[in-house]
Amino acid sequence: MLVGEVYASSPPAVRGRLIEMLMRPLSLLCLSAVSGGLFAAIRLRGDWRSGLVTAEDAQAIQPPDVAALADMVMQVDADWLDGLQAVLSNPSIAGVAAAAVLLAVLATRRKPNVGPEASG
After folding, report:
1. SS3 content of the chain, % helix, strand, coil (to 5)
2. Which of 76, 92, 75, 116 is nearest to 18 (CA)?
3. Eight-class DSSP state of 111
4. Which of 16, 66, 83, 105 is deepest in the core (most CB within 10 A)?
5. What is the DSSP letter of 90?
6. Taking a C-beta distance cutoff of 8 angstroms, is the pair 98, 5 a contact?
7. Do 34 and 72 contact (CB within 8 A), yes or no?
8. Nearest-angstrom CA–CA distance, 69 and 58
9. Within a 10 A sphere around the Cβ of 94, how many other Cβ atoms?
């Protein structure tokens, strides 16, 4: 998934914010189901207001883990795109082109299917 690519090309500070943004709409149970509970452990150990994801976390978490987290968020709360857009629009992201593609793909995924196939 493109979220993993954007994550891989981002500086550590942006990585941390991206992970926190993706974790926010998910319950502890959902977080436990992703990447062997990696994100649940992060949520359990910290104070949500002070920033949960440390620089060490951002360095250790791999792009496939972030892609799995994003997939779970899409299943639970498709409106997360609005908040994610604020993180991805940060000019310090190295992969600005990847971020733009990601936003376009996610926006098309949010639209309900309309047409002959969807009606029956």
Report:
1. 70, 0, 30
2. 92
3. S
4. 66
5. -
6. yes
7. yes
8. 14
9. 13
Helices (H) and strands (E) counted in the chain, each on its own, are 8, 0
Please give the Cα distance from 71 to 64 (Å, whole number).
10
**What whole-number distance in Å separates Cα of residue 82 and Cα of residue 44?**
25
Judge whether 14 and 92 are in contact, CB under 8 Å. yes
Both structure tokens of 62: 């791999």
In terms of C-beta density within 10 A (0-12 exposed, 13-18 middle, 19 or more buried), how is residue 77 classed? middle
What are 105's two structure tokens?
């793909």
Lowest mean pLDDT among 48-62, 64-78, 89-103: 89-103
| H or E, element range at 49 | none
Which two tokens mark 67? Answer: 């892609």
pTM score above 0.70: no
CA 119 to chain centroid: 31
Residues 72 and 26 sit within 8 Å (Cβ to Cβ): yes
Q: Enumerate the domain spans of the chain.
A: 2-110
Distance CA 39, CA 36 (A): 8
